[in-house]
Amino acid sequence: MSKSLLIVESPTKAKTLGRYLGKDFMVMASVGHIKDLPKSKLGINLEDEFKPEYQVIRGKKKVINELHDAASKADAIYLGPDPDREGEAIAWHIAEEIRAKDKPLYRVLFYELTQKAIAEALSHPKELNKSLYEAQQARRILDRLVGYLISPILWEKVKRGLSAGRVQSVALRLICDREKEIQKFDPEEYWTIDAQFMAKEGRESARNFVAQLFKCKKKKCKISNEDEANEFLEILRPLSYTVESVERKKRKKNPAPPFITSTLQQDAARKLRYSARQTMSIAQKLYEGLEVGEEGAVGLITYMRTDSTRLSGDAVQAAREHIQANWGKDYLPSKPAVYKSKSSAQDAHEAIRPTDVNRTPESMAPYLTREQLNLYTLIWKRFVACQMSPAVIAQTTIDISAADFIFRTTGSVIEFPGFMTLYVESQENGDAVEGNEGYLPELVEGQSVNLLGLESKQHFTQPPPRFSEASLIKELEELGIGRPSTYATILSTILDREYVRLEKQRLHPSELGWLIDGLLVENFPNIVDVEFTAKMEKSLDEIENAHYPYLKLLKEFYDQFSKSLEAAQTNMLNLKGVGWPTDLKCPQCGLPLHIRWSRNGPFITCSGYPECSFSSDYERDAKGNVRLIETPSTGETCEKCGRPMILKRGRYGTFLACSGYPECKTTRSPSSGIPCPREGCTGELVERVGKGGRRFYGCNKYPECKTVFWGKPVKKTCPVCGSPVLIEKVSKRSGVKLVCPNTSCKYEEKEQSEAVETQSD
């Protein structure tokens, strides 16, 4: 019996497709890329038109052999990796490796994994897309040139393991530039005055309401300090107030478009606190298929890497029928809503939507994890809401006047919720609020109102906010930096490299990030230039659309880049040697102090070294200025040279270092006085900090002893097994308690309470 071979990149996707296709198809997975550039060398022939030297990825030879054998037995071969640049590259590499020249070979694009979409794709197969592959190859080569050629310079000048990336470096610059704006920002004081009024007559109008001083002598009021505010209060108190104007209007609020990749990542970050990487990982599973009861493996959403807001006619019709059935005709507009995609969008793709609107979140709840259900619910609601009627909001603006002063109050009420019944688009600081929600009293022009009281309030202008993951993705998209497939990788890379840290959902540049950004801006200005990078992204789009030769882009880039590369080898500051100059002077000899980098992180040292051996830890103040940190005396001496040991802070917590550094490089963990509970170990438990910034406690005899605790150790003997320490454990339900670290002992006690023994018999 004849069979066709369908090759996709994911085993899960293969399983879902296999369920629909039955016995006529063999469905196999490449398990991602099968070829890539080598890790051990540049892998690009600069003398032969930037020819990439792809190698079979380690461990993929067996997969390739299996695909080759299956292809030799098949009547036709269909390549179905994801419908984007990366998927096209996988398809090309599979075609090269299986070498099925005597068999018909087709490219199929699955934008959703449903019976109808799969049948449609297989009924209209395509050829491999050379332009799309060249766009991916150009991006891969550009990224390799930047990463592979700049990174070794950073290893030499700063420390090993660092990386520079074509797009990640621009993202880092945006974060650092925003931090500089915040540091330079000088807050300005200003005051506002609120008045509480009550109408003199009329039952409905007898409600109290608050208005704010808006105009003084036909100009917007500006009150700079408390003295000025008090002067205004004295003038305003004796005046008589009347309603000058009442403006009532209704406005429509339209629903947001269906999700594209960037808006899904932004909304998931704001509403669900998911990172971009987490969002894409969950979305991938929803797209490739999950077990849904008797249905088996089902793809629940359309392809999740897209910048198109287009929706298929069938999907729109299904949504309209669902709205009519569940909310009624008032919630269904007379015509379907159509959303315009940006000019660079790939309109062959659809927006991210559920594959079947009748698979409601409630019906999917038994089959999905909490995280999967949360994201599916977000996608489902946004899709349905985008086809619902607009909300109608009644807005009232009332001006109250007295002499040359006008107070204004604005209120808004949702008269008809429309799509807002189901979904409200999130903003950076939470869901959007429609004005001062609530009714204002029924007032008419010329009506007198009583002044019940005045209140002045002090305010300060605020600096621009630090980027969150959501707002950085939005900024990158608006600037034309990156593409749907790259946003999550950009963020995860700068976080994993510890160039930035996430604090209270905001991105802060680390000291390492500051220094790397400074070095790149100084030595590779084009690489970190927003406009240059956006232009490169646009050129890649033009290559994809067969409007720009990809070799021309590579040559233009490398001609300029190679010159910067050569100059950086000589001119880039060496943070291991000379260091980064600061404005501070050495307290011992008066020479400038420089920032240098050691294996324990950055530190301040005298530029006169080795004649002057002064060194110190440092920190930055709110303005970004470098300040020395006084090193507290520990009373301990170096076992090698006899100099005093001082307490220092490194990337993994505090440690003791010889004050004779860099002549003497002795370091050790500070004494805690808490013994390691491991039997036979003579070490002590000391505080450490992991790569993600999480604190833990480990034995100072590491690596000989690998004892580790996430809770704080307390020097207290377990009354059951005799362990010399107990470990602090904190939970919302039971508060703080001490538990025995011995896994065979179940002893625990609540702090400041009687012990509770739960040891089993």
Largest sheet, strands/sense/barrel: 6 strands, antiparallel, barrel
Question: What is the helix tally?
Answer: 17
Count the E strands. 40
Determine the fraction of residues in helical runs and give it as a percent range.
25-40%
End-to-end C-alpha gap: 65 Å
Unreliable runs = 430-436, 753-761
Shape: globular
Sheet-strand content, in percent, reads 25-35%
Main sheet strand line-up:
9-10-16-15-12-20
The whole-angstrom Rg is: 32 Å
What does the average pLDDT come to?
89
Structural class: alpha+beta
Describe this structure in a few short sentences:
The chain is α+β, with helices and mostly antiparallel strands and 761 residues long.
List the helices and strands and how they pair.
Layout: E1 4-8, H1 11-21, E2 25-29, E3 35-36, E4 44-45, E5 51-52, E6 55-56, H2 61-73, E7 76-79, H3 85-98, E8 105-107, H4 115-123, H5 130-157, H6 168-184, E9 189-199, E10 208-216, E11 219-220, H7 226-236, E12 241-253, H8 261-272, H9 276-288, E13 290-291, E14 297-298, H10 313-327, H11 361-364, H12 370-385, E15 391-402, E16 405-416, E17 426-427, E18 430-431, E19 436-437, E20 448-460, H13 469-479, H14 487-496, E21 500-503, E22 506-509, H15 511-523, H16 530-544, H17 550-571, E23 580-585, E24 592-598, E25 601-606, E26 615-616, E27 618-620, E28 626-628, E29 633-637, E30 644-650, E31 653-658, E32 667-668, E33 685-689, E34 695-699, E35 708-709, E36 713-714, E37 726-731, E38 735-739, E39 748-750, E40 755-756
Parallel strand pairs: 1-2, 1-7, 7-8, 16-19
Antiparallel strand pairs: 3-6, 4-5, 9-10, 9-20, 10-11, 10-16, 12-15, 12-20, 13-14, 15-16, 17-18, 21-22, 23-24, 24-25, 25-26, 27-28, 29-30, 30-31, 31-32, 33-34, 34-35, 36-37, 37-38, 38-39, 39-40
Helix pairs in contact: 3-5, 5-16, 5-17, 6-14, 6-15, 8-12, 8-13, 9-12, 9-14
